[in-house]
Amino acid sequence: MNTIRAKLAIGLTLCFATLLAFGGYAVFYSAKKGVYQRIDEKLQIDAYSIMSATYLKDDEKVELHFTVSLLRQFSGEVQSAYYQIWEGEEQTIKKSESLRRKELPKPETVTRTATFWNMRLDNGLHCRAIAVRYGPKERGRDRYTKGKEESLVLVVAQNIEEERAALASLRNSLAGVALLILVVTPILVTLVLRQGLSPLDALASKTGRIESHTLSQRFSVEKLPGELKPIASQLNQLLDRLSVSFERERTFSADVAHELRTPIAELRNIAEVGLKWKDPESAEDYQAAIEIATQMERIVNQLFELMRCESEQLVVSKKEILLPDFIEALCARYAPAAKAKGIAVQLQVPPDAKFESDPEMLQRVVGNLIDNAISYSPAQSEISIQFDSETRSLQVANPTPDLQASDISFLFDRFWRKDQARADGSHSGIGLSIAHAFAERLGLSLDARFEQPNCIVFKLSGFNLKK
Amino acid sequence: MKLLLVEDSKRLRDSLALGLRKSGYVVDLTGDGAEGYWMATHEQYDVIVLDIMLPNMDGLSILTQLREKQVNTCILMLTARDKVENRVEGLSKGADDYLVKPFAMDELLARIDALCRRSYNIRASHIKWGPVTLDLSKRTVSVNEAELALKPREYRILEYIAMRSGEIVSKSDIESRIYDDNAELRSNVVESAISSIRRKFDAVGHPCPIETRRGLGYLIEKA
Hints:
The complex is a heterodimer of chains A (467) and B (223).
Chain A: H1 4-52, E1 54-56, E2 62-64, H2 68-73, E3 81-87, E4 91-95, E5 115-120, E6 126-134, E7 137-138, E8 152-159, H3 161-196, H4 198-208, H5 229-276, H6 282-310, E9 319-322, H7 323-341, E10 344-348, E11 354-357, H8 359-376, E12 382-388, E13 393-399, H9 431-441, E14 445-452, E15 455-461, E16 465-466
Parallel strand pairs in A: 1-7, 10-12
Antiparallel strand pairs in A: 1-2, 3-4, 3-8, 5-6, 6-8, 9-11, 11-16, 12-13, 13-15, 14-15
Helix pairs in contact in A: 1-3, 5-6, 6-9, 7-8, 8-9
Chain B: E1 2-6, H1 10-22, E2 26-30, H2 33-42, E3 47-51, H3 59-68, E4 74-79, H4 84-92, E5 97-100, H5 105-119, E6 126-129, E7 132-135, E8 140-143, E9 146-147, H6 152-163, E10 168-169, H7 171-178, H8 189-203, E11 211-213, E12 217-219
Parallel strand pairs in B: 1-2, 1-3, 3-4, 4-5
Antiparallel strand pairs in B: 6-7, 7-8, 8-9, 10-12, 11-12
């Protein structure tokens, strides 16, 4: 399963199992080492006791002077310790009663330094043994017989069945506990992970429940663990941006529907009334129908233009533009409309100002500004178009008695009009949105401000003038 | 029947007014919200057709203020907003009906007819006095199933007095409800129309249900 929970559960279980295996082995190894160390110490003591009790008699025979406790230890009744002494390489000269008829194995090489090893008696008993080469003491003197210092080989063995059984029991107990822990660990890890990851689950669940109509929901960052706070903060910011986009889309769709519904209603009504009650004045109706169709066509074309610009389908084809010629040509295009309202246009453009831009797209931007200025200025007023070489910006200013400073932020919104009720359908409220989008596409910026009461200035800046 | 049409789109307003007038309604028009509100509070209308997005005063504000002033004229909201919450908002503020643009003229007429009937507390689409039947939906009058050839305005006069049956309807009331402001009103235009209606009833051998109350007006007794 490709989930964090599964990966963590498997990883933690494996880590725990590895630690458990090493820990178990360490416990068992140290216990075993301790047990064998104690046995070896005892064997060493026993061996030195026997060595100290070995004397050479006058007849050159070896005899053992055991203490009672030593005798008892190696007696046939106790059967827990054994010894055997060889003289030369093969001849057994002494062995413990506990051995009875059995023999202790003698290592091939025995030195004065004691060696330890594990072995099994003929009857299958497990023993720990020590072997050492030594010599008998002179009788009556506490010193080794000269020339016989390495004449004897002693092997002492200790029955270790109990210790082995105890170690086996410890090993089995450890294995049992390890198995139990291995079974329980995944369950515990899962429970702990579930508890630990519950804020993540809650976050995922809340995120999953977010729909287009519940974008106002936000995550409570303060209540979340530190690791999730940045994620929740980013999600909140994303939701903010999504809300704005969705709201804009919703408004846009509603506006499109509204803008198109009204002319469609007009068209339909004119047609129905014309059909039902044929009237000598119907020529006027047909004229109205054409105007409505033109208005709808204009809205659709503007929407397509805006869509193409925003989806970057429009290719910018830059050419050198001489600004005075460009502006004068545009003013000439809008001169009839200005004249009809008695509006004077003041031009202040440096005669040598030239730059590179896409003439078609720039016409859509500046043309929209001039068209707006003429449409929304009162009759018999004056609009001004000037280029500021210092700020490299083109400014279109016109008086607007209806607008207020608070309207500035809405000016470039699609379908925004000061008066939402349309009087004649000549402006759909997309023109400035198109101008703004086209300006951005050309690498220019378009903004608006009030310079004095009732006078709005549109500023198109970012021109790279050529010398 | 007299209607007030408040719609900011001039083309739609003119076209609707033409259709409504051709259907026999007297229509007052305006494209301005504030003016529409003034007209609605200073004139008696049977139905007000009200757009929502209007200059100077929006349709919902007009609706709210009219209801606050106890103006109970039936109001049909006419708008391009088609969301359920928009309709609910309009209806909850006191609108009697809601029609989304674009709409069929016949549907608008049917809804206005229904609202007119509602304003006179008439639920059925027929009014009967013995063998005389006034079909409000087909706008016909018949006696013993023989249809009378009434002119549209004659029908409207009969319909208006019939809707207010049991009440004396004054001549000036009929003039204001049935005759447009710009129609050429002669002093005896109502009397002439009623005489014509009576002659058409006489022609089929049945007395006209309209009675004259001298100095007061006209009356149709309740069936």
